Amino acid sequence: MTPAAIVAIPPAMTDALPTPRPGITDIQAYTPGKAGAEGVANPVKLSANENILGCSPLAREAYVAAAVNLAQYPDGRGAALRAALADHYRLEPNRLILGCGTDEIFALLNQVYLCAGDNIVQGQWGFGAYAIGARANEGEVRFAPERHYRIDVDAMLAAIDERTRLVFLANPANPTGTFITEAEVQRLHAGLPPNVLLVLDGAYAEFNTDPGFDDGLKLARDAHNIVVTHTFSKLHGLAALRVGWAYAPAAVADAVERIRPPFNTSIPAQAAAVAALADTEFQARALALVEQWRPWLTQQLAGLGLDVTPSSANFMMMEFPATPGKTAAQAEAFLASRGLILRGLAGYGLDNHLRVTIGLEEHNRAVVDALAAFMAA
Ligand SMILES: Cc1ncc(COP(=O)(O)O)c(C=O)c1O
Fold this sequence. Notes:
CATH architecture of the largest domain: 3-Layer(aba) Sandwich
CATH superfamily of the largest domain: Type I PLP-dependent aspartate aminotransferase-like (Major domain)
Helix content: 25-40%
Order of helices and strands: HEHHEHEHEHEHEHEEHHHEEHEEEH
Distance between the termini: 54 Å
CATH class of the largest domain: Alpha Beta
Structural class: alpha/beta
Bound molecules: pyridoxal-5'-phosphate
Strand order of the largest sheet: 2-8-7-6-5-3-4
């Protein structure tokens, strides 16, 4: 059949065609950070908050060794990884959920808890995946205004009504890099109706060294309505393998388990994640790199006249001045032409901002040099 024959459907027949459920075709598909720049060989990708050091060599070895098992289905419950996580974080194994990235866990939670017309609450600049999952289930997405790109607990609480089922909080947040303290998370939780599930997304939690911060695992232990998520994509550098996990109340874990795709984490991914968790030396190196360059990059970018939002993650966000010729989009193109791929944030409604992953010394210096040239031009 030719493409023309596929398209030419008599108007009277359109009602009979497969039709997505309401709202699906209004969803803006997630736009990942760019990986390349036209005409530039081997650009440096600083657009997706990945681990610039790669991954643990032990994780890579485990992944390669798992190649002998490709004909087999994985252990759907991921017993070895579940046991390793339970042991590492001192958690009850039956309260863990494993996902094809934490993205899948957000999608499953939305699917389990939202009926059409229910809503989720998230910060104004909240991570895009939460809203996609909610809308896919005919849920409404409520954005609570933030102050200085930081979650405002009162605004989050004010956005909640009797149809709210889930509150999503990335802490630290993406794309802003900001965080709220343990005390603020406690206040948010204390203000929630008991039937609202608080999802604390700790994708970048390990990078936050502030003494007032906590990822929420402690708080979740005795709560019936808190889920804490973590990912192997950032600190552990295993984004390609798609492994995320959550610590949930037993009843939540049980509900998710009923609809979870049975083999959602693969054998090589489970094996690599177990090895990565044990490689504390690699983790320490990754954290030290961010610790070393985050303050330097913040200071240098601010020195160029950019409004840098203080970050607690492995990336940072900067705003460009409202000067013609100096827009974020122009800076993004300028940097790309020099082989540096940053993340434009227009999709988040942050039209004049860029986000940059903290890189190796040479990457960070190259970003600062390129932006200095851009701002001076
Ligand atoms: C805040 C936040 N949560 C979750 C994720 C997704 O992580 P995963 O790779 O585990 O799906 C990301 C990825 O960029 C993120 O920024």
